[in-house]
Amino acid sequence: MAIDVIKLLSNMPAKTASDLHLRVNMPPIYRVHGRLLPAVREFLSREDMENLIHRILTEKQRQRFDEEWELDLGLNIPTGERFRVNIYRERGTPGIAFRLISNQVPNFNELNLPKILKKLSTQPRGLILVTGVTGSGKSTSLASMIDYINRNKGVNILTVEDPIEYVHTNRRSIIAQREIGSDCRTFAMGLRQALRQDPDVILVGEIRDAETMSIALSAADTGHLVMSTLHTLDSLQAIYRILSFFPPHQHQEIRHLLSSTLQAVISQRLVPRCDKPGRVPAVEILIGTGAVRECIVDPAKTSTIRDLIAEGASQYGMQSYDQSLMWFYQNEAISLELALENSTNPDDFKLRVDGVLSGSDRGWAEFASTQSDLSDESEEPENNEKKAE
After folding, report:
1. What are phi and psi of 216, to 5 degrees?
2. Are 220 and 125 in contact (CB under 8 A)?
3. Helix axis angle, 321-330 relative to 346-353, nearest 10°?
4. Which CATH architecture has domain 9-101?
5. DSSP string of 274-296?
6. Number of helices and strands (H, E) in the chain?
C-alpha cells in the first residue's frame, strides 16, 4: 500500500487522536479532541482498502463481512495499541473506522467523572445504564466502573461485548470477558448464558432489542448488578427508549419492573476544553430514588423526572447536564459558547450566568455545595490489591 495504515494507527497516541477514518477516494482522517484532521495528503484507492481488509481480517471474518456488509472487531497491532474497528460499505465501497483503546483503564479522576460513580459501582444489585451519542465516552466510563469494582470487591464479573475494548485482569475480583462473534453469537444469548455462570456483576456492551432488555431487567430483579449502555441523549429519553422496545400492552409491567430495579442512569456529552487540549464530560445523573420510581410507574409523572434530577444534588448525588456544564464553566474548563451549545436550556443557562436567575434556586445551590475536586479522594494503592486466586 502507498499509505502505511499500520503506521498511522501506531502514531495515534502521539497525535492524541481518538479515531481514524478510512474511505475510498479520500485521505485518512484523524479525530483529535473532536476535530477531523487529515492524517496524510494521499488518497486511498479501492484496492488499498480491500488489501487492508484482507490483511487485518481472518478468513471467517472476511466471510462474515461479505455476507453481512458490516463487521465489528477488536484489533491489536504489533506496536501494542488496541483498537475497536467497524468495517462497513458506503456507495458500494468499503469504509473502516478505528477507535483507539487505551491499554490502561482510566480511573474516575482522570476522566473527570462525578464521585457518586464510585458509590454506584459498589451497589450489590440493580440496573445501571450509561447513555449518550456515539463517541461520548460510554464504554470508557463503564470500563472505569468495572475496574473500580475489580479493585475493591471480591466478586465474579462477566462481560458480553461487541467487541471487547478494555482488557481487564483479575484483581480482587475474577472477570471473564466474552466477545460477540467469537465467544457468543448475540448479546441476548451471551447474557442468558451469563446467568448460569454464577455472576455477581454483568456488563452488557449495548442493549439493542427487547429480548436483551428483558433479560437484563430480569437479571437485575433477581439480585445481580447489571450495567449497560443505550444510545439516548439523556435519562428521560432512556426510560422512553426502554419502553419502546416492548408493545404498548406490556408498558405498565415494564414500568413496574424498571422502577424496582433501576439504580441509576448516567448520561454523557463530551465538551472540548478551553484551558488545555482535551475534553470534559458533562454528565447528567439520575438516581433511582423513591420519587423517581413513582414517576417511572406513573406515565403522567414521567416527564417531571428532569425536575427531580436538578433538585436531588445534595441528598442523592444527582445532577443535570446544565449543572455539570455550569461547574466546568465556573472553573474555566469550558467556554460559555460551548456550555450554551451543549446545555439543555440555553436561555435559562445564559440568564443564570448573567445573574438574572438566583444562584439559590432550588437544587442549584445544593449542587454547587456538593462539588469538590475528586483528587481529594485518592485511589486505592496498587500494592493493597489482592489478586484473585
Report:
1. -65, -45
2. yes
3. 40
4. 2-Layer Sandwich (3.30)
5. SSSSSEEEEEEEEE--HHHHHHH
6. 18, 13
174-179 and 156-161 beta bridge pairing: parallel
Q: Is the pLDDT of residue 386 over 70?
A: no
**What residue ranges of the chain are covered by domains with CATH 3.30.450.90?**
9-101
- Average pLDDT on 300-313 reads 94
The grid coordinates of residue 210 equal 427487547
State the alpha helices, DSSP H only, in the chain.
Answer: 5-10, 12-15, 46-56, 59-68, 108-111, 116-121, 138-152, 187-194, 210-221, 235-244, 251-261, 290-297, 305-311, 313-316, 321-330, 336-342, 346-353, 364-370
**Do 320 and 306 contact (CB within 8 A), yes or no?**
yes
Report the amino acid identity of residue 198. D
The set of residues, in sequence order, having a beta carbon less than 8 Å from that of 229 and lying 6+ positions away, is 129, 130, 131, 132, 138, 139, 142, 205, 206, 207
**Distance between CA 217 and CA 215 in Å, rounded?**
5
Q: Is-cis flag, bond preceding 163, omega within 30? A: yes
In one-letter notation, the amino acid at residue 375 is S
- The yes-or-no verdict on residue 361 having pLDDT over 80 is no
pLDDT of residue 299: 97
Take residue 9 and report the three cell numbers written for it: 494507527
Tens digits of per-residue pLDDT, 139-158? 999 999 999 999 999 999 99
Tell me whether residue 384 is exposed, middle or buried, using C-beta atoms within 10 angstroms of its C-beta: 0 to 12, 13 to 18, 19 or more.
exposed
Determine whether domain 108-373 maps to CATH 2.60.120.430.
no
